[in-house]
Design a protein that fits this description.
Strand content: 15-25%
Number of helices: 15
Largest sheet: 7 strands, mixed
CATH superfamily of the largest domain: Medium-chain alcohol dehydrogenases, catalytic domain
Distance between the termini: 14 Å
Radius of gyration: 21 Å
Helix content: 25-40%
Structural class: alpha/beta
């Protein structure tokens, strides 16, 4: 089968990390770590596994962070290469092991990509015993090579290939009412649902979402699908993002976080001796969905006293970030990882199916066959404003 594999080469990785911003082809071209290959179809690893032929697979910011060298090396012990990239997917079951129950041939499914104790066939760690396998202690143990999730595992192919194999615990049936375009968003929507459910905003709270890419817009969707009574403002850079945020239910959309805090909360702006303005007052809840230095700085400045900042975007190494606001405002900063519980997947699918007119499918803006992977990756690293892209997917022919 055809698949896009990442071959870790330290010289090529460093070349992309240092010069890719000037020569973007270093991320996806002949000198990059990624290539389209012909590899064997995956065999079932055991009797409780199924093989899934993919229909759509998404390109995620985590994938792009790997290609561009922007992902922190701190988590490198929990990845193994070469690996078929990709972890957002919808497909249909084409083979089941003899011990698989509740899954049948031809069934449409989405795949939870994490590889915790149950999948690795080791005794449950404390996190898995408590029902949160997404902070599993054994991501580098057990029968498979180190990886937190599919797409970063040398032994199990990810979604940027024609087929994957998955343990039955990883499979979630797609309701008939959902299109493939909606279903492929189940993975990032589950991330955002977990981020919101980590600590639910109080009724009447004023909420700010920083970033209007896939994760920012799906965090807005999570708040609306959960019917939380909060006023939600979104910071968006581009007109097409503003339009999507309004369509998904934003109460207000701004181009700047500090302006949003002043207008929405009445926060007062002051000028320090050096640096950006600071605010007195601000939002009760801020979701940072970009994970970069500017968005984190905005989040800490725009949050009000005793406010909560939720890190939804995958922030890595952040230099010269002023943490004064955390203690000066007594902020609570919450990290999020994965989906909190496997049941979050079912909640995401149920909420989408219950709101068939909710325009989530509009977030899937571009489709490419695997053979055009360089064009797809070029579009995603060149800037979303120029391409007006949100979620790009690989489309597999039937």
């Amino acid at each position: 089968m055809q698949a896009i594999r990442y071959h870790l080469s330290l010289p090529r990785f460093l070349l992309a990390r240092t010069l890719g911003h000037r020569f973007p082809s270093l991320y996806y071209g002949p000198l990059s770590c990624v290539r389209l290959e012909e590899i064997p179809e995956p065999a079932l690893p055991g009797p409780e596994w199924a093989r899934v032929r993919l229909r759509l697979a998404g390109i995620c910011g985590t994938d792009l962070g790997t290609l561009t060298g922007k992902t922190s090396p701190a988590l490198s012990p929990f990845a193994s290469f070469p690996a078929v990239l990709g972890h957002e997917m919808v497909g249909e079951v084409v083979e089941v092991g003899p011990s698989v129950k509740g899954v049948h041939l031809g069934q449409r499914v989405v795949v939870d990509p994490y590889l915790p104790c149950q999948v690795r066939e080791v005794s449950p760690c404390p996190a898995c015993q408590e029902g949160n396998p997404y902070v599993c202690h054994n991501m580098a143990e057990g029968r498979f090579s180190p990886a937190m999730l599919l797409g970063f595992c040398g032994d199990l192919p990810g979604a940027w290939g024609e087929q994957v194999v998955a343990h039955v615990s990883q499979l979630h049936a797609v309701p008939a009412a959902l299109s493939d375009e909606q279903a492929v968003l189940a993975e990032p929507l589950s991330i955002c649902l977990h981020a919101v459910q980590r600590r639910l905003p109080r009724p009447g709270s004023r909420v700010l979402i920083l970033g209007a890419g896939t994760i920012g817009l799906l965090t807005l969707a999570a708040l609306r699908l959960l019917d939380l009574p909060a006023r939600v403002a979104v910071v968006a850079r581009h007109p097409f993002q503003r339009e999507l945020a309004q369509a998904l239910g934003a109460d207000a959309v701004y181009g700047d976080a500090l302006e949003a805090a002043q207008r929405e909360t009445g926060a007062r702006l002051y000028r320090p001796l050096l640096g950006r303005p600071v605010l007195m007052g601000g939002f009760e809840w801020v979701y940072d969905c970009a994970g970069n230095r500017r968005s984190l700085d905005d989040a800490l400045r725009a949050a009000g006293s005793n406010g909560t900042v939720v890190l939804v975007g995958t922030a890595g190494e952040i230099s010269r970030l002023d943490w004064s606001f955390v203690w000066a405002k007594e902020l609570t900063v919450i990290g999020t990882m994965g989906y909190g519980s496997p049941q979050t997947w079912d909640l995401a699918l149920q909420k989408m199916a219950a709101r068939p007119g909710y325009p989530l499918a509009r977030l899937v803006t571009h489709r490419f066959p695997l053979a055009q992977y360089r064009q797809a990756l070029r579009l995603n690293v060149s800037g979303h404003g120029r391409s007006q892209s949100v979620k790009t997917v690989f489309d597999f022919p039937a």
